[in-house]
Amino acid sequence: xxxxxxxxxxxxxxKKLAEEQGKLSDADLILSCQKIEPITQVNIKVRKxxxxxxxxxxxxxxxxxxxxxxxxxxxxxxxxWDAFTTNKEHAISMATTWVMACAYSPSGxxxxxxxxxxxxxxxxxxxxxxxTKKRLVGTHTSYLACCQFNTSDHQVLTGSGDSTCVLWxxxxxxxxxxxxxxxxxxxxxxxxxxxSGRVFVSAGxxxxxxxxxxxxxxxxxxxxxxxxxxxxxxxxxxxxxxxTGSDDASCRLFDLRTDREVAVYKKESVLFGCNAVDxxxxxxxxxAGYSDYVLNVWxxxxxxxxxxxxxxxxxxxxxxxxxxxxxxxxxxxxAA
Amino acid sequence: MSSIAQQKKIVEQLRSEASMARKPVxxxxxxxxxxxxxxxxxxxxxxxxxSKKDNxxxxxxxxxxx
Lengths: 336, 66
Description:
The complex is a heterodimer of chains A (about 325) and B (about 70). Chain A has 2 helices and 26 strands.
């Protein structure tokens, strides 16, 4: 096929896509929810402060036991905390600085992490000296930005500055599937809570969020309405939608089944980039951490900010709601 | 990859995206609201705790018997 014909077909297909998406835009999320009772009060207080990191905290992950969490920082330390007592249970010094990615394994026995070393490594927490039993899971050609265990302790999904995501087998260190398609560094990823092991979303510096079929390695949906780097992405708890947080100071909600952006969470007075997002258990509240030290809480159905949580002396770099929805932890420089 | 090969890839990708089955926004909104309502009570950050004892992060008060 001639190059001209291909270019022509590309234009036609893009128009058709826009048409198809437009046809189904028979409602507006915010307008449809006008009659719903607004959230009038958000009673969220700082209950615990986890101090111990010397440098900027770059990533955190809750254990499925809803009590422990792991955090990694730019000075190369990985800490495992008991959030109920604020005690540090493990402290591991990594061979690299800027540990931008970490994840707690579903069983709670391992933590995976990596950063500027381009590698994803796994540490067994039950060993007396976890650092001596470190195992390499996979290597990228640029920094490791994010990682998550895929439904079990045996597989890890990674996202990298080399613009790819890879699914690794922990035991063999082999690549099971690779995901190519981003035009820039991948910054964040999240596995679908409903299509466990089959679907995940990734987002990055190309301003786009890609939805992937994990078996074929194909990008099945692409959303690129953000105006700047996307730093964080989280699935809505039902798995039907996901939210992104971007340097363009907005968070956006994309619904997978209708294949479009359905809400934007932004405010004129919110000028700083959003670095981290997560939903409350029912998906009604959106927690978003920004570079101006604030954690904004948004009512997802009204696109209105319902609370501002302070308690940090620096920018909020990562945040996560506990698996049972009882709390949200946000990290910045050295404390949660 | 030659530019023609790249273009062919884009065409394939767009064709598969165009053939995707989509739902109207109104239906998706209804589902979202339904999900939120059925999980509202379990969402403590929205509905609060029934009693302080239910909050695992609540500081445990206590009296000392001297």
